[in-house]
């Protein structure tokens, strides 16, 4: 009897030890903090918020610390200085870093949006089909020089035979955050706006969306998750888990309704009317702005550089194979269903 009791006690002790050992190992591996710096808070980035809100990052054992690092320059500076681990910003910023001769290149590893996210807004409603030539001679409130929105805008205008610096009265000295207010206050006859500002201006009756720069400029690696090569080399497992979570969110967004997506991301836009958020989600979803996967296509990469070249912002073309690493997106696309 004593022998049986001893055997039972020993078995229980061994089981407890194994459990504690397993928990000890898991506690070190289960939760990894990843600091993301997004260039702005935007409904355009809906899949990112879905991945957080639906717990897809958490499922991968990642604890996400999300901050908004307003502006591409600030976002990239924060990434390079080690203030964040991953940046969500336009791919052009990684090219600018390379042009400055960085010894630790910034690598694009997971695409989130695949078109420009801005719209052409007119002060007056249009009658009939919109003719781009009607912009000639008009006061146009544009985006910041060198930024992707302005470059995509200029690319579109040139495609329609308009030289933005000769054919328009172009205003580019208004800060990004103040552009909607400036237009609403009477500056400009036309303006290039992100959402939800374009929809808000429409709802207030102060402007009318008449064209999409996203549709006109074609597919681009417009907003991408990127990290320093040194970080990726040391944390490849974390980057893979991160990519898996984003892919799951991308899959979900593709099949979810506009209402479902809106409900999932509303906590990130508490100061925005729900109907506005819904309208913006529908607009971006309808025009295919949300990437279906994280793959950064070489043709789209070349289109991005065509846009930059046209704007005079590209010293020399950047090698796709040097600044893009699709291995994590490829594995996520295969593994996550």
Automatic annotation (TrEMBL):
Keyword annotations from UniProtKB, A to Z? Signal
Signal sequence annotation: 1-22
Instruction: Tell me yes or no: is Signal among this UniProt entry's keywords.
Output: yes
Main site of residence?
Answer: periplasm
Task: Enumerate the subcellular locations listed in this protein's record, separating them with semicolons.
Answer: Periplasm
| Gene3D superfamilies per record | Periplasmic binding protein-like II
Q: Is Lipoprotein given among the entry's keywords?
A: no
Q: Which domain of life is it from?
A: Bacteria
Family annotation (PANTHER family): ALIPHATIC SULFONATES-BINDING PROTEIN-RELATED, TAURINE-BINDING PERIPLASMIC PROTEIN
- Family listed: Belongs to the bacterial solute-binding protein SsuA/TauA family.
Write the protein's name: Aliphatic sulfonates-binding protein
